[in-house]
Design brief:
elongated, 0% strand, mainly alpha
Length: 122
């Protein structure tokens, strides 16, 4: 995903990252994994790939300007990935909470129908 999006035009890159972020966040939400763990995963790959980029730049004898441009584009992609994962995660999480709230409300009516008097006088 990172390799692909670095070489794409910015608008296409953002679109791909949105799709990936939504899929990635869905997995973490469905497994009830906290958002900070998802972000840690992205940062883990940022570090590993950054090391690979640095080593490859040395082998290719890239000048400082070219290396800076490459690493800046990569950082931009990763920053966008973190934003997309965070946004998608929070949207999915909020949706799940809303659904759970509706289910609780519906369940309340099952357990205490309006025609049944409350034992607490409420």
């Amino acid at each position: 995903m990172y390799r692909e999006t670095v070489s794409l035009p910015p608008a296409v890159s953002v679109e791909r990252l949105k799709e990936w972020g939504a899929e990635y966040a869905d997995i973490f939400v469905s497994l009830i994994i906290p958002l900070d763990r998802a972000i840690e995963e992205v940062h883990f790959y940022r570090t590993k790939i950054g090391i690979i980029i640095k080593e490859e730049a040395k082998l290719q004898k890239l000048d400082l300007d070219t290396f800076y441009e490459l690493i800046s584009e990569f950082d931009s992609v990763v920053d966008t990935a973190v934003l997309m994962v965070s946004t998608s995660y929070m949207e999915k999480h909020a949706s799940n909470l809303e659904t759970a709230g509706h289910e609780i409300d519906e369940g309340h009516h099952i357990f205490q129908p309006a025609s049944c008097p409350s034992i607490f006088g409420v």
